[in-house]
Design brief:
The chain is of the alpha+beta class. The chain is about 50% helix and about 15% strand.
């Protein structure tokens, strides 16, 4: 068997080497199809499939999700309170281990060497979920993770140990400042241990209780002696490991019972919460990967679709190659007949043909890995967070295994065409046939393969058109503020404690410094950033029983230049002015939607709103601003209001800065200018507002970009396939066409004959592909933005495009056929 395989291999390589143009064309076609699949698999695998490395029994480890019904809609989330984590741990029996965790980007180091790094913030029980004993020292334990008395200890990642400490044992006991506190390093994590964040590997792991204590000291939540027993601060997630033998349904029932009990405890603390019969709280286990959770992100859904799209591209490539191999097999009919007559078994012959196709696909797979490597770099840069850890396709075992399997599968599939032809060989007829008789044979299989290519191309191009139009609709949405010229300025105090007066003075100096910085048009103070951070307070309005039942009302505290800086228009009344001081009349500006909700059919100007309690003084509405998008890009309206920064926590504000030109170009200059006002070791971070908004449009950008890329690739492959088949047919029909012309056919008749052959195939492909696209629209529709999956304009453009491409692919061989000289064609062998 080994000798036979080596003979087949040698014969196939020799035959392919003798036809370099054919071999190159097939390998490049395979490379495009397999490369596209490998690149897409790499992205989908990281987002949706791959469990965190070193995780024990990943099938039994779950993230905990909670759900409540608000305004008739169930909302599922992962972020919870530490008290909730304690409740669910204490009141469930389905799990043998639970842990709380979150992550944050914190400054590490001091002075100019300080850099923001990803920090894993975990409970002591977190490390037990992994088969990852520390490389050096130890992990922190329960006694060091006590709320209110968390130890300042840290575990360094293995990569930080190697790069920052040279891999020396002197790292144990070393001190490092993380955020506002100094931590002592007590251990080094195992190689490859990244917790739950393989794409954004943490540099250090610190106790969750220590971080909670630090947040209270920094004023990020109300200073309470027992923050871990309250339900006001939802900031962390929870994972749990099911006990052996406990089903997911039983675990969900157990969790829901505990979640309801915990919500009852929360209502004691917040009696204004809706009753349980309206909230209908429940909890469930789900994927440890949040992108795949019960409320899977739009990005994850589109990525899953694109995985299927990549397979369609591979099928188109396989159909293309199958046609080429089929044509090659037709030309070798007499050779195959001779070999059979000399005693070669049909099984051996089929094995040889299959070996040839698999060699071609493996060669295409190797070339495809290069395509996948460069494509995956582009995908990561375009669609994953900026600090995502890079992972080379060429070093990723899972992607290499997938590419190898795809190559073998493609080789087997495409090898079926010549095998089918060889299995039907007519030994007597093929041996008797002359060269002319054996060169051309009509084949339904070749036409079917062309139709498949056309139909799949239509499906992909329709998807591309729908997502492109969705992305255009998203870009046309008026957010209520400008994005491109605005920078978000965030203050990181790193433990520098300032009293209220000094904190207000610092922000005044920062505002003045920003306004005097070159290329800055204006600057403003702010609390509350759309799609980034939200503030809300209880509101009380005369005549309305419970304002919160009307929806969520978010706020921002701003300085007088706010509306000019961000570009939000004042529709009636006035904005915040310099006369709105701390002891002046309390005022507010409301969005148009908020005004219509609270005072339908009335003018909001002059209305009274009380905040926090119905005994507080009135805040009078002095202006109505245009609506903004602050939490979602959908057609649902967000309700927003604005307070003077001087009248609402002026010591907690950040800044917006409007620059000339694109914000990212001036970010570093603004940061350096403002940093001069910051006390050590506090520092400034700058982020273009466009980066925050861009995260909201990732799914449509991914869909538009990748559907378009795959659709164009499929269109090119289909066009090449159509051209090659028609050109081959014309070459093999030279004698027939000469006879037709000798009998009186005009050159135009021959031209139409060949062109109509290509157009017939295209029309059948358009009809079938359009039907498939219409059927798939019911599932694709929810991923689109303000776009019908049955948009006739998209289908019309796609159909016209495929017809034009088919016409172009048919014209060249048709013209060649029409120029055939009858006398020469009649002598053609």
């Amino acid at each position: 068997m080994l000798d036979a395989f080596l003979q087949d291999l040698t014969y196939a390589l020799r035959g392919l080497r003798a036809k370099p143009a054919f071999t190159t064309a097939v390998i490049l076609t395979f490379a495009l199809g397999i490369g596209a699949n490998a690149a897409m698999f790499s992205l989908v695998d990281r987002m949706l499939l791959r469990p965190p490395p070193l995780l024990k029994v990943p099938g039994h480890v779950h993230r905990i999700y909670g759900a409540e019904t608000i305004r008739g809609k169930e909302r599922i989330g992962t972020g919870g309170q530490y008290a909730r984590y304690v409740d669910l741990t204490k009141w469930t029996s389905s799990f043998d281990r639970t842990a709380g965790f979150t992550e944050n980007d914190l400054a590490v180091g001091v002075g100019d060497a300080a850099r923001e790094m990803r920090i894993g913030i975990v409970s002591a029980s977190f490390f037990g979920f992994f088969d990852a004993p520390p490389a050096l020292g130890r992990y922190f334990g329960p006694s060091e993770d006590v709320p209110g008395n968390g130890a300042h200890v840290a575990v360094a990642s293995h990569s930080v140990w190697q790069t920052a400490y040279g891999g020396g044992r002197d790292i144990l006991g070393a001190k490092v400042q993380i955020g506002s506190d100094v931590y002592q390093i007590i251990g080094v994590a195992a190689p490859g241990f990244v917790g739950l964040w393989p794409n954004q590997q943490p540099a250090y792991f610190i106790p969750i209780s220590t971080f909670g204590d630090a947040q209270v000291r920094a004023g990020f939540m109300v200073k309470e002696a027992t923050w871990w027993t309250t339900y006001h601060w939802g900031w962390m997630d929870m994972i749990a490991r099911r006990k052996p033998g406990v089903s997911e349904a039983a675990a969900n029932a157990d969790l829901t019972q505990a979640f309801v009990k915990s919500t009852e405890a929360e209502r004691v603390e917040s009696p204004r919460m809706p009753p349980l019969k309206l909230l209908r709280p429940r909890a469930m286990i789900g994927s440890i990967l949040s992108e795949r959770g019960p409320n899977a992100s739009g990005f994850a859904k589109v990525a899953a679709w694109l995985g299927g799209v990549a397979i369609m591209v591979l099928l188109i490539a396989c159909a293309n190659v199958a046609n080429l191999l089929f044509a090659r097999a037709l030309r070798r009919r007499r050779e195959i007949a001779v070999r059979l007559a000399l005693g070669v078994s049909r099984a051996r012959l089929l094995s040889q043909l299959l070996t040839e196709s698999v060699i071609l696909s493996l060669g295409g797979g190797l070339a495809g890995l290069v395509v996948a490597h460069w494509s995956s770099v582009g995908l990561r840069m375009a669609f994953l967070p900026p600090n995502t850890t890079s992972l080379s396709v060429l070093k990723d075992e899972r992607t290499l295994l997938f590419a190898g399997a795809a190559a073998v599968a493609a080789g087997v599939i495409t090898g079926l065409a010549p095998i089918l032809q060889a299995s039907r060989a007519d030994l007597t007829g093929d041996l008797k046939a002359g060269a002319r008789e054996g060169t051309y044979q009509r084949s339904r299989l070749r036409v079917v393969l062309l139709v498949v290519q056309g139909a799949l191309s239509v499906v992909l191009l329709v998807g591309a058109g729908l997502f492109v139009r969705s992305l255009n609709h998203v870009r046309d949405v008026r957010l209520g503020y400008d994005v491109d010229p605005v920078l978000l300025v965030d203050l990181n105090m790193r433990g520098v404690e300032l009293d209220s007066a000094r904190a207000v003075d610092l922000r005044r100096r920062l505002l003045e410094r920003a306004q005097s910085t070159p290329n800055v048009r204006s600057a403003t103070l702010q609390i509350g950033v759309p799609f980034w951070s939200t503030w809300s307070m209880s509101l009380f309005v005369a005549g309305i029983d419970t304002v919160s039942r009307l929806g969520r009302f978010d706020l921002s505290a701003v300085s007088p230049d706010y509306f000019a800086t961000v570009g939000t228009r004042i529709l009636r009344g006035r904005g915040i002015t310099a006369t709105d001081l701390e002891h002046s009349q309390l005022v507010m500006v409301v969005s148009q939607a908020m005004g219509k909700t609270l005072w339908p059919n009335e003018d909001p100007i002059g209305k009274c709103v009380r905040m926090s309690a119905d005994t507080m003084p009135c805040r009078y509405v002095v202006g109505v601003a245009e609506d903004i998008k602050s939490r979602q890009l959908s057609n649902e309206t967000d309700m927003y209001y604005y307070l003077p920064a001087t009248q609402f926590h002026p010591d907690r504000t950040g800044l917006f800065v409007r620059v000339r030109g694109e914000a990212s170009q001036h970010a570093d200059a603004v940061r350096r200018s403002l940093q001069r006002e910051m006390p050590n070791p506090a520092y400034i971070t700058i982020m273009p507002l466009a980066q925050i908004i861009g995260d909201q449009t990732r799914s449509w950008q991914l869909g538009a970009s990748m559907f378009t890329a795959f659709g164009l690739l499929a269109l090119v492959l289909a066009a090449i396939g159509l051209y090659s088949v028609i050109a081959y047919n014309v070459a093999q029909r030279t004698h027939e066409l000469g006879v037709r012309m000798a009998l009186g056919a005009q050159r135009g008749d021959v031209l139409k004959l060949v062109v109509f052959e290509g157009l017939r195939v295209a029309i059948v492909g358009i009809v079938i592909g359009g039907a498939i696209a219409l059927a798939a629209g019911r599932w694709l529709g929810p991923l689109l933005f303000d776009e019908s999956p049955r948009d006739p304009a998209v289908y019309s453009v796609v159909a016209l495009t495929l017809l034009i491409v088919s016409l172009a692919a048919s014209l060249l061989p048709a013209r060649r056929a029409s120029l055939v000289e009858p006398t020469r064609a009649l002598r053609y062998e």
